[in-house]
């Protein structure tokens, strides 16, 4: 009986140590936050319109700030997942994300997620293409599409036609304003 009791306690100690080790292993390795700088889209768009241009350039930093703003406005990305910090890097139409999350209000983890960006008026939609937790691939079904708002911050008379993804920047192409758009601009 005594051998069984000692064996049971050793087993419990091993299980507890493995659990603590797993929690330590998945914890975030980077100290990230959700602070961002406001992107002056409206001012840039008005300046662009004054130049009689239909194209606006958003830099890598602008896209990162817009993505962080999207997360800061809604950090509860899934029912049991809260984002506490994020870092982004843009490569063409792929947004690489380092995310610090808390799962079920208890477990902190660091994730790496690659999102493919696409334009769906009036927003940029980020769809997860790969996700990893310390090198372990996660099922993509765990990640819903993220919305990065752009169109809401623009003057009402400007409508985005398309986005062209480049290295470190995004070219925003606008539709030429219609006569009714110009009338509404004058009457406002």
Secondary-structure topology with pairs:
Elements: H1 2-26, H2 41-50, E1 55-59, H3 60-73, E2 76-78, E3 81-91, E4 94-103, E5 107-120, E6 123-133, E7 136-137, E8 146-149, E9 160-166, E10 169-174, H4 179-187
Antiparallel strand pairs: 1-10, 2-3, 3-4, 4-5, 5-6, 6-7, 6-8, 9-10
Protein name: DUF2140 family protein
Keywords: Membrane, Transmembrane, Transmembrane helix
Organism: Cohnella soli
Q: Could you explain how this protein is built, in words?
A:
With 188 residues, this protein is α+β, with helices and mostly antiparallel strands. The chain is 31% helix and 39% strand. It is built from 4 helices and 10 strands. The strands form 2 sheets. Strands 2, 3, 4, 5, 6, 7 and 8 form a 7-stranded antiparallel beta sheet that branches. A hairpin with a 2-residue loop joins strand 3 (81-91) and strand 4 (94-103). The protein is elongated, with a radius of gyration of 23 Å. The chain starts with a helix and ends with a helix. The mean pLDDT is 83.
